[in-house]
Amino acid sequence: MALIASYIQKDIPTYHVYMGEIDLLRKVREVPDQIIMDLWDGIQDGTNPKPLRIFCPRASAEVMRSEIEGATVIACDLLDDAVFHTWPELRPSS
Question: Buried b / exposed e across 38-69, counting CB within 10 Å, b at 16+?
Fold first, then answer.
């Protein structure tokens, strides 16, 4: 996302967190469950400041246990999902 932001000359909001590995077909690969659980625990106990928008693979998003006020999870199947949720104005018009 940092490379894309640099290329398109747009800022990434400070409250966005991106997790996952991107393969050559732009698919977002899974993150180990423990990383997701540690992040979520940090949000619940106040270690990680809110608001937060967490972008992660769909399977990792399902590991999140419950809703926490001020934290939004966005499941991403492709890199495109994260890009268009971060900068909706980049989405091609139909």
Answer: ebbeebeeeebeeebbbbbbebbbebbeeeee
Does pTM top 0.90 for this prediction?
no
The owner of tokens 């469950």 is: 33
What's the rounded Cα separation, in Å, for the pair 81 and 94? Answer: 16
Residue range 7-54, pLDDT digits in tens: 999 999 999 999 999 999 999 998 898 998 899 889 889 899 889 999
CA distance 78 to 24: 11
How far is it, in rounded angstroms, from Cα 32 to Cα 10? 30
Sequence ranges of the domains in the chain: 14-90
